[in-house]
Write a structure and sequence with these properties.
Layout lengths: L2 E5 L2 E7 L5 E6 L2 H16 L12 H12 L5 H19 L9 H13 L4 H20 L23 H6 L6 H14 L4 H10 L3 H5 L6 E2 L4 E4 L2 E3 L2 E3 L7 E4 L2 H21 L18 H15 L9 H12 L4 H8 L4 H8 L22 E5 L7 E5 L28 H6 L11 E3 L3
Antiparallel strand pairs: 1-2, 2-3, 4-5, 5-8, 6-7, 9-10, 9-11
Length: about 450
C-alpha cells in the first residue's frame, strides 16, 4: 500500500507503479510528497504496456529522442534541439528519471535560467525543446502527462510574448531606408544586389532565396515557384512544408533578366555550364549564410543604418509596406507562405490600416426606386423602415412637408387632409413620413 514516511529529514513516498514494481521517491517537504503520491497513484491506475525502460534518465532519453527525430525534422531544427539540450537542459535535469520529472522541476529550471540573465526568447526555446521531447515520452507511455506543457493559471511557463510585444520586435525598414540600403548594396556588394532586391520585393526568406533555381522563375508570367530552402548546405522544403507561387514586380523581372545574361556570359567565358541556382556562389553552389550576413552588415554600415537589421528584415519590410498601402492581408499571407492568417495579423498587425473613410458608403441603397419610411418621430426615437411598394395616391408630390405650394415643410401647420395622408396623429404628437421614389 502506498504511503509517506519520514526518514533522515526527508519524506519518502513508497508505492507500486502500474507494472507492479515497488518504488521509492524522496521529497524535501510533506506537501511535495503528498503531491507526488497523488500523481503516482493516478498513474498506477492507468493500464499501460511496459516501455523499453521506465527508469530512463532525462539524459538517456534525450539521446534516444535526437536519434529518432533526425530524419523527420529540418537540419536547423535538429541543431537547435541538440544545442538546447546539451548546453542548458541536461546539465540541470539530465540525472533525473523521466518518470520522476515534475512541473515543479520545470518551473525551477525556467526561473533559474531567467535569473541567470538569459532572455525570454532564449528560455522559451529551451523549454520548447524540453516540451517536444517530453511529448514523445508521453507517446512512449513513460509518463502520462507532459510536465512542461503550459497549463493552468501559472505565468511561469508563459514565455511567449504577447502579440503587441511581438510586433514591437519586428525590425522593418521604412521606404527611404530600404532605398538607401539597396543603393549601398549596389555600390558596396554588387554581387548580392540582385538577391537582396528580390528578397525586398517578394518577401523571400534567406534560405528560400538560396534555394531558388532558374527553372522556378517565369519572367514572362512574372511569377516564381518557391519549392525549396537551403540551410546548412542541406536542401529541404520551405519552412511551411509546402511550395508556393509568388508574384514578381517589373523591376525584379528586369533585374533578373540582366542577372541571367551576366551569368550566361560569365559561364561561357569560363567554359562551364550555367549554374542552376539563381543566386549561386562563385563556385556555382548555394551561397553560405554567414558570408551573406557579413555582406549585409557591411552594406548597413555603408548606408548609415542601425546594425540590428538582418537579411530577414527585408521580408518584414516587404510585408509592412504592402499592408501600409492597404493591400489585402490574405494576399500578403499567401505571398509570405504563412500557415494562417492569424500569424500574419499577429506579426504585422500594427501596419494594417485601421480606418477606411467612406467605406460605409457602399452599404447605402442605390437605384431608381427606393422607398423609406421614417416612423414615430416623438423626440426620443426614430425607426427607419424600407418598403418596396410605392404609393399610388395622386397626393404624392415632388417634395414633402406640406400641400403643394406651401413654403413651410412643417406638417404641424399643414392642412389636416395632408396631415392625415402623411399619418399625422394629433393625439400622440407623432408622425409618419413616407418618402417615395427618392
Amino acid at each position: 500500500m502506498a504511503c509517506i514516511r519520514k526518514r533522515r529529514g526527508k519524506f519518502v513516498v513508497d508505492y507500486r507503479d502500474a507494472l507492479g514494481v515497488r518504488r521509492w521517491a524522496s521529497c524535501d517537504t510533506r506537501r511535495e510528497a503528498e503531491a507526488l503520491l497523488q500523481r503516482v497513484l493516478v498513474e498506477a491506475r492507468e493500464p499501460r504496456r511496459a516501455a523499453t525502460d521506465t527508469d530512463l534518465t532525462v539524459d538517456d532519453y534525450a539521446r534516444r529522442w535526437l536519434t529518432i527525430i533526425q530524419t523527420t525534422v529540418k537540419a536547423r531544427t535538429l541543431e537547435s534541439y541538440e544545442s538546447s539540450l546539451r548546453l542548458h537542459v541536461l546539465p540541470v535535469l539530465g540525472e533525473l528519471k523521466v518518470r520522476m520529472l515534475t512541473r515543479a522541476h520545470v518551473k525551477q529550471f525556467v526561473a533559474r535560467k531567467l535569473t541567470s540573465g538569459y532572455s525570454l526568447n532564449s528560455v522559451r526555446i529551451m523549454t520548447a525543446t524540453l516540451h517536444a521531447m517530453l511529448n514523445e515520452a508521453v507517446e512512449d507511455e513513460i509518463i502520462l502527462a507532459n510536465p512542461a506543457a503550459r497549463r493552468g493559471r501559472s505565468k511561469v511557463l508563459r514565455l511567449a510574448p504577447a502579440a503587441a510585444n511581438r510586433e514591437e520586435h519586428i525590425k522593418a525598414l521604412e521606404r527611404g531606408q530600404l532605398a538607401a540600403l539597396l543603393a549601398a548594396v549596389a555600390e558596396r556588394e554588387p554581387r548580392h544586389h540582385p538577391m537582396f532586391l528580390t528578397m525586398a520585393r517578394t518577401g523571400l526568406r534567406l534560405g528560400e532565396a538560396f534555394g531558388l533555381q532558374w527553372r522556378d522563375v517565369d519572367l514572362e508570367q512574372r511569377e516564381a515557384r518557391v519549392a525549396r530552402s537551403v540551410s546548412s548546405g542541406r536542401v529541404d522544403t520551405p519552412k511551411s512544408g509546402k511550395a508556393r507561387t509568388i508574384d514578381l514586380s517589373p523591376q525584379v523581372c528586369d533585374l533578373l533578366t540582366r542577372h541571367r545574361e551576366a551569368q550566361q556570359a560569365a559561364a561561357l567565358s569560363a567554359g562551364r555550364g550555367v549554374p542552376e541556382w539563381v543566386f549561386p556562389s562563385l563556385e556555382g553552389t548555394p551561397l553560405d549564410r554567414a558570408n551573406v550576413e557579413k555582406a549585409f552588415k557591411r552594406a548597413l554600415r555603408h548606408a548609415g543604418l542601425p546594425s540590428h537589421y538582418s537579411p530577414h528584415s527585408l521580408r518584414h519590410t516587404y510585408a509592412s509596406l504592402l499592408l501600409a498601402e492597404g493591400v489585402n492581408v490574405v494576399y500578403v499571407q499567401e505571398q509570405l507562405g504563412h500557415s494562417s492568417i492569424q500569424l500574419t495579423v499577429g506579426t504585422y498587425g500594427r501596419w494594417l490600416r485601421k480606418k477606411a473613410p467612406g467605406a460605409v458608403d457602399a452599404l447605402d441603397d442605390s437605384g431608381p426606386s427606393c422607398s423609406v419610411s421614417f416612423g414615430r418621430v416623438n423626440g426620443s426615437k426614430v425607426v427607419a423602415e424600407t418598403t418596396s411598394r410605392a404609393l399610388k395616391s395622386p397626393q404624392v408630390v415632388d417634395w414633402f412637408g406640406g400641400p403643394r405650394g406651401v413654403r413651410t415643410p412643417d406638417l404641424l401647420i399643414a392642412k389636416k387632409s395632408t396631415a392625415r395622408f402623411f399619418g399625422f396623429d394629433e393625439a400622440s404628437s407623432c408622425r409618419t413620413i413616407n418618402i417615395v421614389n427618392c
